[in-house]
Each structure stands twice: as structure tokens, then as C-alpha cells.
Amino acid sequence: MNRELLTAAAKELHLALTEQQYEACGLLLQELLRWNKKINLTAITGRDAMTVKHLVDSLHLVTELRPGDRILDIGSGAGFPALVLAIARPDCLITSIDAVGKKISFQKHIDRMLKLANLEPLHGRVEVLATDRPGGFNLVTSRAFSSLSLFVELAAPLVSASGRLISMRGADGEQEAFYLRESIAAAGLELEPAVSYRLPLKMGERSLVIMRKAR
Predict the structure, then answer these.
(1) CB 119 within 8 A of CB 79
(2) Which residue of 90, 110, 132, 203 has the fewest CB atoms within a 10 Å radius of its CB?
(3) Distance separating alpha carbons of residues 50 and 45, to the nearest angstrom
(4) Nearest C-alpha neighbor of 57 from the set 155, 177, 166, 204
(5) What DSSP letter does each residue of 98-112 carry, written as one string?
(6) Prediction pTM value
(7) 30-68 pLDDT, tens per residue?
(8) For 161-173, how does the pLDDT look when each residue is reduced to its tens digit (9 = 90+)?
(9) For position 43, what pLDDT does the model report?
């Protein structure tokens, strides 16, 4: 992990991470690399790239969380942003779900290693979870998950009456949401202003597409 990059990003985002949280982020990437030698979990393996594209990118979502949020990360993969959210916000409850068992196994390993009392990694399909826990989350999120339209379709049944959906997307996220505004409204959601940002070291532009359950 590039501690200097992560510290600078946290400062820019006005996040006061503790030394223990920085150490947890470092251990997370260390274990990701170790597991990745046997199980394909990520194509990003450079120190700076992992710090920026896994940790810093996930931190941009941390700023959108509210105290006590119940959060679901759909298609969580190796645990980004879910693991970073659990590390940075112990006051929030994080559930992650992915259909690939080895990725959830890695998340469970990190959960045990870091003793994350606020993390619930689930191996399964989100369609089934929507039947088990309809409206069970204040915030449903995803990072680089398929199309925005599919995310809306899968996530809308899971969000509470006053809850939000946040899709972590590329630079064209806001434009993508504009084209889908009618189907977003049909799903009972209202678009809020998107949040655009640039990753350090010219590693790309990103956006948070934010939707709220219509009142």
C-alpha cells in the first residue's frame, strides 16, 4: 500500500482515519496480493494502482455514508467498496453479496483477520436476497456492476422507504443516468445530483450516481 497516497486522499475527503484503520487497509491489500497468487481476485496488482483503484476509490463512497446506515454492496467481488466501508465506518452495518464463492471466502478471511464486527459477507444471488430482505437497507451500492439499468432493477426492491441507491461508475455515469431517467422514475426512484471526481496519478475519472426512493 502507498500510505502517502491514501493519507493525502483521506485528507482531501476530510476523513479522519486512525492509525489502526490505515494498518487495516495495508493488511487488506497485503492479503489480496497473497490470495491472488492462487485465486484470481484482481487484475490490479501494482502498489500505487491497488491503493488508488481499490482504496482511494472506495473512500469516495465513505463520505456519503450516514451514522448507523445499513448498507448492501451488490456484486462485491473481492470486497470493494464493502471492506473499505467496514474498516472506515464501524458505526455502519455492511452486507456484501457476490455469486462467486471464492471472492466471498476472501472477504470472510479479511473479516476474521481484522475482526470486523460490522461486516456480513454473503455468497448468493441478489434476486434471492430481495425476497428475504425487501426494503432491508438504507443504502444499496455497487462498483463497476454491469449496467446502471440492471443495478436499478436489482437494487430498488432492497432499499428502504427513505433509502438511497449509489452506483459507483465511470466518468459518463451522470449522462448514463440521464438517459435512463424514465426507467429510474418507473422504479420509484428520484435522481439526485451526481458526484464526479478524479482519481490520483491520472488513474481515471469516476462518478457516484445517486438515487433516492421517491416519497
Answers:
(1) no
(2) 132
(3) 6
(4) 204
(5) ES-HHHHHHHHHHHH
(6) 0.95
(7) 999 999 999 989 888 889 999 999 999 999 999 999 999
(8) 989 999 999 999 9
(9) 87
